Amino acid sequence: MSGKTLISLNLSQAELDLLTELSEKKEMSRSAVIRQAIRLMGMMEQRLNKGEKLYFESLDKEKSEVLLL
What are phi and psi of 54, to 5 degrees? Predict the structure, then answer.
């Protein structure tokens, strides 16, 4: 597919507030935040399909969590 496609998106107020907060924090447009989130989700899906795991670790490295989706 070439070019870009315009889509409509229905968000709750909480989702819109979070999107706006991320947009301001990252100094990105709301569309750019959504595009980045889609790319991240796609990468996570590919890696999980290969059997890889996601880990979240605290700064002190005493606590960690495994995220299996």
Answer: -105, 135
Of the candidates 56, 49, 57, the one whose C-alpha atom is nearest the C-alpha of residue 69 is 49
Distance of alpha carbon 34 from alpha carbon 31, whole angstroms: 5
Backbone φ, ψ for residue 59 (5° rounding): -60, -35
> What pTM, to 2 d.p., does this model score?
0.77
Over the stretch 26-46, which tens digit does the pLDDT of each residue have? 999 999 999 999 999 999 999
Distance of alpha carbon 16 from alpha carbon 4, whole angstroms? 22
CA distance 34 to 12: 15
Please check whether residue 19 is in contact with residue 34, taking contact to mean a CB–CB distance below 8 angstroms.
yes
